[in-house]
Structure formats: C-alpha cells, structure tokens
Queue: 4 jobs
Job 1
Amino acid sequence: MLELIDVTKKYGNKVALNHLSVRFEAGVYGLLGSNGAGKSTMLNLITDNIPRTEGQILYNGQEILSLKRSYFKKIGYTPQLQGMYEDFTARDFLHYVGALKGMKASQCKKQTEEFLDLVVLSDDAHHRLGSFSGGMRQRVLLAAAMLDNPDILILDEPTAGLDPTQRIRLRDYIASISSERTVLLATHVISDVETVAKKVLILSKGNLCRFDTPRHLIDETADLMRKEGQTPPEYLTLEDVYLFHAKENLSWD
C-alpha cells in the first residue's frame, strides 16, 4: 500500500501540490489534469526525485525516506523526460537497467524480449537509441520500467507515440497485471484509463478535486448536469466528465 499524507510541494511562493492526502492499493489509478495541474510533481515526489516541502509518503506503513533502496527496488517509473544513453541499443539499454535492478541475467534477457515485443520494438531493438524518435524512446522507457515486475508501476504519459492498436494492447497488459500491484497512470488520453482504472484522481492547480471510481464520477456528473438544466449524453464518458468540470475550473462543489 502506498499512502500520501498531507503532501505539499512549493517552489518559492508557487504551490505545485497542495496538502494532498490519498491512498493507493492494488489496481490501476488514473491521474488526470491539465498541464501544470501537479501530476508530474506528485509522481516525482513518490519516486523521491524531488524533495517534498511537507507531509509523509508511506509504503506499507513506513516512510519511504527511511526505506531508501529497498523501496526504490519496488518501483518501475516511466518519466516524460527522456534522458538516455544515445550509443546504447534498445536491447542493451534494457539489459543495463535490469543489471541496475539486480536481476539475474537469464531473467533480464527473457523479460527484455517480452517487453520489447509488447511495446512493438523487437525489430528495432538492435538500433541505437540516438536514432529513435521521441515516441520510440518513450516505449523503451516503458519497457525498462516494467522489468523485474515492480510492485508499484508509475507511468507518466506512457502511450505517447503509440498508435491506437498499440495503446489498446498496452492498456490491456496494464489491466492484466494490476491485481497484484499498484499502477499510477498519468495521461491526457482519458480513454486510456476509463475502462481499466479502479479509481481516478483529478488534480487542478495542485489541488485534489476528486478521487473516485469512473462509474461514480460519471453518475455524479450526470446528476449535476440535470441540476443545471442540461441533458446528459446517452452514453456519458469520463472524458465528458472531465470536460464538463474543466469549464468550471474543476470545481466539484
């Protein structure tokens, strides 16, 4: 279990994340919000890539700062930033990441081929990363994050550069592994989370607007639309929910 208690991040006078308290168990959790909402800040705090200003982050009841390396071995992280070793091939890069994670060579090689196939890079695995497009690099980072079957999988815009068929394939894979681990999925592609998310967390300007199941958010929004004299679409989607509240600056009062 991963728990954030009153977590705040400030940059001078700017509040990037404002007293966030939330708990994640096994399952997929969708993180939604516009640019600057605080999604990447939250993920960087969970991975301790940046220091928090206030609050606690607990893994199975223990502060992650005290767990140190034992905690980081539990995490797979796909960031938006794509700093990589340009001269490595995709396959060599995954072998390198596996070694850093302490994987056995045979296990690492097996998983490398499995995940290269999953992200549709098997045919390009022998090419250097310096020749890859941004989307291809993102897919390599995604494969690296999944190595060694981490307990917490943190994905920041993981479907960038994927076509619709590849996105569905990845979404189905994420759903298939989520019963045994926590998956945090930050995305602008709302349809990526609607069918697989256990709960959806919506951030706006560093504040938590909502943390609930997709079904409940959809039903609640339909009721709000009726109260405002609007007729909800016959098949209201999570994207409709997000757009409806974005017009009101994501106010759920």
Job 2
Amino acid sequence: MSLLEILIVLLFLIVVIGLANEKLFHLQSDIALLLLSLILGIVMSGLGKLHISSFYESFIGELGELGFEAYLMDCVLCFMLFAGASKVNMRKFRQNLKTISLLALLTTVLSSFLYGGIFYGLLHLLGLDISIWTCVLLGCIVSPTDPIAATGILNKLGLSKNVTSVIESESLFNDGTGVALFVFVKSIVSRSGESNFLMVMAKEVLGAFAVAMILSFVLGKCLELTTDPVRQIFISVLDVAAVYVICEHFGFSGVIASVVCGMYIANVMEKLARRRAVYDPHNLYIDFWEVLDSIFNAILFVMIGISVINTNVSRIFLLLIPVGIVSVVVSRFLGVAFSSLLTGRKKIPSNYSFVEFVTLMTWSALKGGLSLALALGTAEFLPKDIYLIVLNTTYITIFFTVVVQGLSVSAGYRMIEKHKAKRIQRNSLGRTN
C-alpha cells in the first residue's frame, strides 16, 4: 500500500468511528477513537484468523513498515506540541510556575525511579527476571504525562482553567525531563557510556531553550511585518519545524523547543490581537492550528488503537496488566506528593488541600503516543523478550490512563470539588464559632 492509501484507510476509520460515537456512544472524541479502533481491530483480526478477510493483517503490516515512531517523532510531534503550547494561559502559567516546575522536573524523576522499584519488586514476586535498570527505563517511558493526550482530552472535560493550566503546562514540559532521563538510563542499560544525567539534562533543556528563543525572536519579527494571515501561518510552521530539526540534529530536546516556540509565538500573536482583528477577522491563524492539531491527534489515537492488536496475549501479558497499573498509579501519587510538600500549601492552586491536589494530579496523568514511541525505540538494544515486556506494559499503561482515567477524571474532579467545598464550609463555620 502507498502512503496515500494508508492515509485513506486511517481517515475512513476516523470518520466511521466519529459518526458512530456522535450518534450512539457520546464519548469524548479522542477516547472514542482509541477505544473503538481497538474494538474494530479485534473484530477484523478475528475475521482474518477465520480466513474471512486478510485485509487487516495486510494493513497492519504496511502500517508497521511506515513506522509509528517515525510518524510521531519525525513528522507531527513538533506541530502538535506547538499547537498545545499556543493554548497555554500565560497568566495562569506564571501564577503556578513553582508548582509546574516541580511537577515537570522533580515529580518526573521521582516517579520514574519509584516506578522502576515497584515494577521490579512486583515482577520478582511473580517470578519474572528483569534488571532493575530496565524497570527504571520503563519508568522513564511511562512516567511523563503526555501533552497530546492532556490537551486533547482534559480541555473538554470541564476542569477549571487554573487546574487545566497546571496539568497542560506540566505535561508540555515534563516530556523533556522524561526524554533526558530516558537517554541517561538507556546508556546504562545498553552500556553506551552516556552517564551524567545533569549534563544530559542541561544540554537538552538549555540548548533547546536557546535555539527556540533565537529563531522564534527572528521569525516573530517577521510575523509583525506582515498583515497576511496565510503568510503568518507559513512563518509559524517554518519556525516550529526549523527549531525542532535543528535541536534534534545537535542533540537538544526538540520536545521542549517546540513548547517554548509555541508559547513565544502565541505571546507575539497576542500582542498583535488588535491588528489581527482587522486583517484576520475570521481567525484563520487560530483555526488552522486547531484543525491541524485535531487531524494529527485523531490519526495518532487510531494508530495506537489498531496497532495494539500486535501484542501477544499470553500469561505474562495478563500478569503485566495489574503490575503496570499499580506501578504507574502508586509511583505517580508518591512523586506528586513529594513535589507538593516542597511546593507548600499556599502554592497549591485553587485552594486544594494536599490530598485533594495530589489525588487530582495523579488521576489526570494521561499517557499517550510519546510513551509508545520511546518504547518502540528500545527494540534496537533490548533482548526481544524484555522488549516485549516493555512494549506491552506501555500499551497497558496508555489504555488504562486514557480510557479508564480519561473517562472517570471528570467525575473524580467533581467529587474533589464537592469535598473541597464541604471542607471550606466546615473551616468557615469553625472560625465563626
């Protein structure tokens, strides 16, 4: 199949699933794409095993040759991150900067190592032999919250702007920490010699920030020179694409660079708001990035949903389900708890108590395509049996966080809000008495 034929099949699935969800299921769109594409994949796979249709196996093979990792990391990731960063509320971001910084940096590092220890212990209780550093590597893969899942799902679930800003901003920045930590632990597992995490982190973050700011400053000036909204779109696309490629070439974090780029250009466009209202009354610039983000996001979730059928459902796979879920939830809870203690009660947003905030940030931590791309990248240096454990656990984590947590986070948020209201009411009554 050609690339265009693969794209046609993916778009067909997106349309069919979208219509079915709109008329029958009424799920959040990204969750519906992931869940229904999985169900459709199971049905098609079953037909293939019954020799009724071999199309699905052929399509999955073609999709595998295309490469999920290449599609995400080398093609669309920078544009999706740019679009997500463009929506960040800068005022809320500055208000919660300490909280976001600790969550993006400290929580990610702590959760990765805690995950590794918990996963290692649980596997050995079940009699499975895997090294502690491989478990930590898996922690680096699944601990960072995914910006694509966060911006695609959490924005549509009715959370307050303050909370949404913290979750979005953390998810946009903690991937850089996760990738740097992944590179560091990967060097230990593969014995490639890169062993100084602080040096890796400094290079990834500072290099990315410098490249993004310099190029965005220059192209931001170009944005101010034109009153053509289409040309402004081209400049923004050029900016994020060039920044991402330059950073990846020099070993900086293209992920962080794309986020910085998106926030900088969004700030420039905000300053031009009055002028843009005259020459771009229909908001072509904003609509372009909304539509592009929706298309890439939909394709991403369908690709994840249908590719999971490649997993081998064995006894080990079934054992990995509870182990992976317990490890990711407990490690995230402990990591957020420690960072929240350092943040201080007064810096916790929206007047949440310590337990309320930690619970919300734990359950709203969704994983997505970036985790899967990193897991697929371990095939080059891990033994096949260990690689399958890493890959299958990543699939389990993505589906649990996106489907189970994604469907229930809105109800959980409302419960926490009710608990907060009752707590504030009790405290106010106590003061009056």
Job 3
Amino acid sequence: MEVTIIASIVCLLVGIACGYIIFRYVLKQKYNQAMKEAENQAETIKKNKLLEVKEKFLNKKSELEKEVAQRNQKLQQAENKMKQRELSLNQRHEELQRRKSETDKLQENLERQTALLDQKKADLDKMTEQERERLEAISGLSAEEAKEHLVESLKDEAKSQAQQYINEIVDDAKMTATKEAKRIVIQSIQRVATETAIENSVTVFHIDSDEVKGRVIGREGRNIRALEAATGTEIVVDDTPEAIVISAFDPVRREICRLALHQLVADGRIHPARIEEVVAKVTRQVEEEIIETGKRTAIDLGIHGLHPELIRMVGKMKYRSSYGQNLLQHSRETANLAAVMASELGLNPKKARRAGLLHDIGKVPDEDPETPHALYGAKLAEQFKEKPDIVNAIGAHHDEMEMTTLLAPIVQVCDAISGARPGARREIVEAYIKRLHDLEQLALAYPGVTKTYAIQAGRELRVIVGADKISDKETETLSADIAKKIQDEMTYPGQVKITVIRETRAVSFAK
C-alpha cells in the first residue's frame, strides 16, 4: 500500500515537472514571436517617420529656395532701379552742366550787347542834342517854346474830336429815341400791374386820424427812422387821408411792420426804444403765426407726420409769392389737384397731396441757395426724412431731376395747371424781388456791415454799419465802393442811391 502511494506521488511529481517544462517552452515561443512582431512594427514606424521627416525637409528646402529666389529677385530689381536712378542723375547733371555753360555764354553775350547799347545810346544822345540845336537855329524857337506850341495844337485837336464824338452820340440818341422810349414804356406797363404791385410790395395801414402821423414820424423823424431800421421797410407818410403806406419787397417784413405799428398806435408810447421792443415781440408772434399756419394747412389737407421744419416752411409760403401768385394758395391748389388726379389713375391720393403741398418748399429757405428751387426742395425733403417718391416728385417737377415715380409727372402737370390761370403769374415780379435781394446781399458782404435794406422799389439801398467797426470817414469810402460794385455787377433801371448809416448808442440802466 505504501509502495503504491509513493509510486503515485512520484508519477505526480514527474507529471508536474513535464508540464512545467512544456509550459516554459510554449511561453518562450510566444515571447520570441511577440518580440519579432514588436521589432517589425518598430522598424515600420521608424521607416514611416524617416519618410515623413524627409518629406518635411524637402518641403522646407523648397520653400526656402523660393524665398531666397524672391529675395534675390527683389534685390536685383532694387539694383536695377538704383542703376536707372544713377543714370538719370548723371543725365541731369550733364544737362545742368550744359545749361550752365549756355547761360555763361548768354551772360557774356548780354554784357557785350549792353556795353554796345550804352555806346550807341551815348552817340544817339549826342546826335539828338546836335539835331535839337540845328532845329532851334532853323525855327528860331527854343525847345520849351516848341513844346508849348505843340501842346496847344494837340489840345485844340482833342477838343475838336471830342465835340465831334459828342455830336455823333447825340445824333444816334435822336435816331433811337423813339425805339428806346417805347421799350421803357412797355417795361413800365409790365411793372405797374396794380393788383400785383399792391399784393407784393405795399401794405396800407389805416389810422383813426392824421394826428397819429406826427407821432409816428417823431421829433426830427427819429421814430420813423427807428421803425424803418428795425423792420427793414420804407414807411411813406404823405397826404393820403387816414393811411400810412408800408413798402417792402419782403411780405414778412411788411407784416411785422404793420403789426408793430398797430400795437404802437394802440399803446400810445412811440419812441425808438419802445419801437425796438415791440418789433422784437411782433417778430416772435409772426414766427408763431407761421408755424400755426403750417399746422393748420397740413390738418386741412389731411397730411400727417410732417417734420416741424417742413411745417414752418409751409407756413412761410403764406408770405411769399411766385410770379405774382400766393405761394401757399398755389401749393394747396396743386396738392388738391394732384390728389384728384392720383385717385382717377388708381394711385395713392395722400402721397400725391403731400408731394403737391411740398413741391415749392425750395422757394422759402432761410438762406439763399445757389441751386434751383426744385433741387433744393428735394434736398430739404430728403433731409427731413420724406420718402424717396415724394423727394423725386419735388425735385423733378421742373425736369431738373429724372422722374422715377408716377407721382412726379402728376405733380408737374398740376403745378402747371395751377399756374396757368389768366394773370396768375408775372415773371417781372420775380425778377424784381430777386434784384432787390441781390442788392441787399451785395452790400451785406462788406466787412463792418450789420444790416442792409433795399427801399423805394430798389432805387435806394440803406446800409447800416457798426459804429465800433467803421469810422465816419470810412463810411464815405464804403458808400462809393458799394456804388461802384453795383454799377459793375448788376443791371437795373435808373440809378440806385446808397445811404450808409453809422449810429453810436450809449445805453445805461437806473437801478
């Protein structure tokens, strides 16, 4: 029994030993195989990395070669430019040397000619003196006596020619007198269109009695002068019973003067300081009235959303005329006509009415634009955020801008219809107002001038200057300068009187 157990143990040990040996052999085989695979993978990775490095090296080398080639090319170009510049400088230097040489030669030649001229001049003076002595001996007269003789003969000849020239002018004037007289009469007839002249240049202020006229005039005329200076109008106080005539080409000035006169007469206190105070107050009232008129017009026509400045311009139309036609009335009429026509054509009548009302806003700006009123009106409308079709209708109603919407021809046609009524417009009035405005602006451009007023239908220009800027003696020179400039640059009938006013004021307050 014990032998059997021992034999079993020995067999077990032998089996374990054999198994261990086999296991180590298999493990070694797997290890060797894994090592070979790892070596193969490492070799593959090494080869790939070497290939990548070589490729990057070649790319970098190619880029470096290109950069070097570009730099070499730039250097070559810079070298070529330097060579060209050096060649150009050499050529210029040679040219300067050549010119210097020519100049030196010319200078030498000039000096020789100058010396020769001096010699000839001395010879000529000597010959002239000899000839004068010979002539004096022949004529028996000295040089001074001969000169006086010649001057007297030239005077007589000049007088004769001047008289002949005057006679020719008089004869020509007689021949053309009839034609010129007809032209003047026709111009006068065109100007004196009674209703237009009254509407555009004259306002009659009615008073209760003629005693008020003396108070308006004031001591030595100081009140009327102060009122005219403050309002820029001409006030005519004549024998017309219970009436004072206010004359000015600007209707706003006339209205301010009329309202100021009304308040002054009603109050009874009329003196220069009070006049200036009332005129300033009335000016603000008229400005408010202009805005109110613009708002009322927009409401009457059913137009909403207008910019406040456009509303103010519409109100100013009340005091403006276009060829003798009230501008606000003309714009309202154009707006209504445009709305009716747009409705008939199936377009938006509200837009048409808006464009018709605003089409002439370029005629009432605060400053004097150089551009035509249609283009300036379009610019103003665009500035105050009106829509593009409204802007185009305003700018194109005189064909000064290309029409891009159907509103434009409608406004153009309605503008023509409104202005086509018999006697609605007279071009001479527009030219007359422009001439007066140009007169004022011409004088206002001079330094030291504070205000200018064209009065008496443009026959007199009053220029007010600052007492601290121009002296009494300089006013005479200023008056002559303005007269000459008007004579050179403007066309006008008759003559224009320029009156320069310089006034010194001292103001104090008792407290």
Job 4
Amino acid sequence: MEFDALSLPKENESVVVGMSGGVDSTLVTLLLKERGCRVTGVTMALWRGDLPPLPNGKVLKSSCYGPDEIEDIEECRAFCAENGIDYRVIDVKDAYRERVLEYFKAEYRAGRTPNPCVRCNASIKFGALLDGVRSLGLDFDYFCTGHYASVVRPKTGLWGTEIRPAMISCALDATKDQAYFLHRVPSDILEKVRFPLGLTKKSDVFQMARARGLKAAEREESQDFIPSEYFDHLFSDKPSVPGDIIDLDGHVLGKHRGIEHYTVGQRRGLGVSSTRPLYVHSIDAERNFVVLSGEDELLSDSLVADDFVWAGNVVPPASFHAFVKIRLASRPVECFVEKASESEWRITFAEPCRAVAPGQSAVLYVDGVIVGGGVIRSTEATKSK
C-alpha cells in the first residue's frame, strides 16, 4: 500500500492540544503557537485522591494516575499563561475509573494481562476528553498530542473498496513509537487528529525544547499507568484468592497469592524453588491455577484474537500477510492473518513468539501503517513442543 501524510494545522486554524506537563506535549503546544495557530491547551483530570502514600517514603512522579497530577496541571497552567495560550482542565475521573481502572482489574481477575493505555487512548484521551472539550463550547479544527506517530491516508481504497480512511502510521523514531497504543482510535476521530512529533526524533525534541527554555525539558520521562507498588491497593476492593502454582504436567510447585498478581512471562516473585529458571506460562482462572514452565515452553506459533477494530471499519475480505506486534515493546513479526470464526482471527507467526499474553493487543501493520488490531484470547504452542 501507498499512503499520503495528512497535513499539520495551518496559521489561524484552531487547535486543541492534550497537555500532560511533559516535554512532548509542551513543545507541541508551543510549536503550534509559533505556526500562528489559535491554540487551547487541555489536561485530563483523572486523580481521585484514592491511593495511599507509597511505602518507604517513595515519591510517585510522572505517572498517568497519581497525586502528581495536581503539580502537572499547575505547570501546564503556568506555561500557557506565560505564552498567551488558553488553558482548560477537563474532568474525566468517572469515565477513567469505569473504562480503564475497572477494566484493568476485571481483566487481571480473569487471568488476562490487560493494556490500560490502549483502552485509555481510545475511550478517554480521544473520547471522553474530546467530549468534555465540546461540552465547554470549544470548537476546533484539529486535536493534537505529543504522541510519536503519524496520521496518513491510503492513496487508493482500502481492501479493494473506495474507502480511504485516516490511519495510524509508525513514528520516525522507532525507539519512541506509540502507534501501537493508538490502534483503537476510530478513523473518524483521526480525521481531526494530528501528531506533530511523528517525524521528529526524541533527541531533537529535547534540543528544540531546551533552545526555547522549556522547563518541561528537565522533567523525568512519564511512567505508564501506575507503579506496581499500588497494585495491592488497587485490588483491595475484593480479597485475593490463593491457589496452586503448578507445572505443565499438573504437579503442584507452590502456592500463589491470587492470579491478579501474575502475568505470562513473569519470572520474579514466584516463590518457587527450581533447578532451572521458571516463568509464568499461563493462568487458569477457572481452576485458579498459575502454570509455570521453562523458557522454551513460552514459545507460540500462532494466536487467536477477537474484539477487532479495523481502519475505517473496513474488514479485510480475505486472508492476508502483515506484520504483528504482540505488545508495545515487541518487534514486528511477519505473519499470516486469516478468519478463525465469525468474530475471531488467527495470526500465524513466521517465527515463534515468546510469552504471548491473553488480554494484550495483537496489532497488525502493512507497510508501517496499522490496518487493525484485536485482543489476544488464546495461543498455540510451537509444534516441536
């Protein structure tokens, strides 16, 4: 496929920028101001004040959900005031709790490994936040963020149709690429979305920010979601149910403290002695088992996923070849994609993949552009096992 990059906002066009207080979104806000755009900065208010202080006096900084949000908002407000930029705070606390936090807990308790950032982008950052902006009567030509990705349009119709939807393309800086996190954002929303840093390297972002004297250039990089120290508190609304840790043959190796504390591929904190390294192979929520194996048994030839979203809502009419990422940090792997049932697709890897985790997203790329993605439901072990 061939694609055209969609143009960035022009002079006098109105732009809303999602600001976090970090260097990326702060720089984007100022760059758009310098282009002559009419800019409004907005920040999501997520924090409900419901997490206790961290143990051992540890300070939580730059997480998506935490008390430092108050400081972030004040820094954004001060920056916008200094640069003559309108600034608003949008309260999305209830939507975030229902659509992200509760989803996160429910998935772990079902023995799956969820990706809260994928859900947050689709339903909060590019959903509830924009609903809140519109409820304030703020009209805008574009919504921009500091994500490392780009928005493109295919030169010809997708999958043989006449539909040419807005689609997510990978960033120039592969080490910072965030396209994976954005794959569930609908194409109709993407029509008015732009990512000004998509063709910029992170090193250049810092250079531009420091040249402009931005305080955000000296901040720590943000963390995803919340730190692991808060997991126990997050799951404290229901008691954990201990159970057996077993091997692939069903032998009991020890006891676990609740399946929500484990994820596929995990090695540390298992509390099991062995003459070889052991990893979480799978989680059996129905029988309350955590299943361990060696490294080789973590390999899979294929996966089955459902809950798919497709660019432009155009479902591929036939099987096709693509590249797949099974988590943000994984490298793209060649694959063959085919229908497995009415709602499921089977993705067969050109080479075995390690620790494929149900609940994570399988995101499909053609020529560096996302054509769709679904939620992993099951895997198939390598044939040699």
